């Protein structure tokens, strides 16, 4: 008796560039604020909820479907980070709890930095661009935590500048990956 064998092939696209775009754009905008170029407003909060939050969580679930644990953990976690950060900003204004102290925010940012350090360790088996990206995220969380613990405006501004570089790095990887698919070859260097 003859048996038919069916092999399922995943033909869905790579969701990572979308997640990196959400992370990159939102990180750049928040850190332009941190660098002192404009105030914290609903533009950043809207980006934090939609691109930083919901898009990254969606991408994390798509990475889960593709059996990519790293992508699932990174995108889903950072999506939750952005949504929680916006809630931290708006809940007190809505009378839903007290605003966190600078020390509490320092710890919030520090634990995210510790988590990111763990992800950075995983990137040591990946490309140099991913090592760089996650390294800049670790440094960003460290600088922001230190700025909150110390109240240093200078460190906060330096964190903002570093954060723009971090976000731009994510966007660079996203566009570089997109161009590989569109052109069928590597256009931007991504060692």
TrEMBL record:
Any single biological process term in GO: succinate transmembrane transport
Transmembrane recorded as keyword: yes
Main localization category: membrane
Topology of the protein relative to the lipid bilayer: Multi-pass membrane protein
Alphabetized UniProt keyword annotations: Membrane, Transmembrane, Transmembrane helix
Regions that span the bilayer: 35-58, 70-92, 104-124, 131-149, 155-180
Single GO cellular component term: plasma membrane
Protein's cellular compartments: Membrane
GO-annotated molecular function: acetate:proton symporter activity
A UniProt-annotated Pfam family: Gpr1_Fun34_YaaH
UniProt superkingdom: Bacteria
Family: Belongs to the acetate uptake transporter (AceTr) (TC 2.A.96) family.
PANTHER family: INNER MEMBRANE PROTEIN YAAH (PTHR30178), SUCCINATE-ACETATE_PROTON SYMPORTER SATP (PTHR30178:SF3)
Name under which the protein is recorded: Acetate uptake transporter
Organism field: Carboxylicivirga sediminis
């Amino acid at each position: 008796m003859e048996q038919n064998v069916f092999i399922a092939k995943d033909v869905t696209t790579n969701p990572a560039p979308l997640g990196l775009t959400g992370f990159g754009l939102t990180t750049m905008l928040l850190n332009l604020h941190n660098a002192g170029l404009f105030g914290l407003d609903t533009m950043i909060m809207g980006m934090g909820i939609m691109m930083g939050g919901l898009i990254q969580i969606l991408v994390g679930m798509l990475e889960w479907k593709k059996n990519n644990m790293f992508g699932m953990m990174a995108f889903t976690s950072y999506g939750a980070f952005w949504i929680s950060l916006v809630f931290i900003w708006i809940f007190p204004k809505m009378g839903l709890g007290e605003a966190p102290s600078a020390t509490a925010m320092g710890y919030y940012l520090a634990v995210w930095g510790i988590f990111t350090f763990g992800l950075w360790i995983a990137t040591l088996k990946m490309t140099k661009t991913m090592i760089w990206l996650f390294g800049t995220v670790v440094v960003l969380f460290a600088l922001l935590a230190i700025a909150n613990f110390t109240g240093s405006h200078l460190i906060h501004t330096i964190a903002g500048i570093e954060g723009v570089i971090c976000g731009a790095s994510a966007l660079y990887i996203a566009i570089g990956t997109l161009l590989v698919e569109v052109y069928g070859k590597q256009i931007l260097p991504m060692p």
